[in-house]
Amino acid sequence: MNLYFNDLSIHGQFHDIPTFTSSIDVLMSARQLAKRYSREINCHRSCVNSNVTPQMNLHQAVQRIDKNKARVLMSWLSRAGPFWEDARQHPEDEYFECHGDVVTDTAIGECAYVCLSSATGQLFSLTPSDWNQSPIEVNCHKESDVCLDVRLLNHIDAATLERELICAAPPIRSWEQLREHSLQRFINLNFSEQAFLPLRGRPFVNAAADSFLKLLDVLDRFRAAHEDGGGRTAEGNEIYQTYFTGDLAWFSDSSDQEKVDFQSYMTFPHPEIADQTIFATYHGKVQTPQMRVHISWPVQSDSPLYVLYVGDKITKY
Q1: Domain for residue 165, yes or no?
Q2: Torsion on CA atoms 19, 23, 29, 35, rounded to nearest 10
Q3: DSSP code per residue over 79-112
Q4: Taking a C-beta distance cutoff of 8 angstroms, is the pair 179, 150 a contact?
Q5: Strand 41-42 and strand 2-5: pairing?
Q6: Domain shared by 291 and 179, yes or no
Q7: What pTM did the predictor assign?
Q8: Domain range for residue 228?
Q9: Is 56 found in the same domain as 185?
Q10: Whole-angstrom Cα distance, residue 301 to residue 307?
């Protein structure tokens, strides 16, 4: 799947720098999300010349935002890329039209051409802008007067993008692929080097792998929903109530008897401190077959969430 930042979604529409900064935060979060799925959001070098407000272009606006944010943004748009114009696919003798405007030489035109060429392309646009609808309908006019229509999926937040990235991700075929995918995708979790070792030699079960991914996704979002120096956010409280409480909770603690009978089996080397261990009785549940993810607990904003064990259920009598 090819992803493109919609350069037309910067058109001088921002009334102040804080609104622009919030919009850029969403874009950069989406870029980091794409990287977790081994994807890049392609941009165009001309973006740096776009007007952010009626009075300021991007170069001027970034001087008024956080220096670290400005550095990362400008590095992407002016130096690092990737830049789709370096491997441009749509030719100059065809033109692309959207809502009566010619969009040749823009990310919309490039994305439309890619989709018409039997590949997959999607857009990401800033909000607010004139380009917050999805899909975006584009007409491609060829020399032969043939007109082809294409509908482009257009994202304005990371949630819809992630759903598409999950669908576009290649299916996991082995436990090793599960490990590699998890380490790359779940950036809010700290996996011990031994976490996935219990799966070695065990027959791969696709349904179990899918369940592991769902559990790890909840943990990743739950850890991210803890504010520095504070407790859980509103989203964190919602996740906790949904997945960590009640008879059908995905995560729970082991029973008092299990803690006695299986103490040694649920004690794991500390991933970062030599000669220390973590007694990890809190776990996520895979039901068919009976498998578990053991984690450090409780989850706190000032300490990592360690994933220490991924494998068969430990507390079997």
Answers
A1: no
A2: -150
A3: II--BGGGG--S-TTSEEEETTEE-TTSHHHHHH
A4: no
A5: parallel
A6: yes
A7: 0.70
A8: 172-312
A9: no
A10: 16
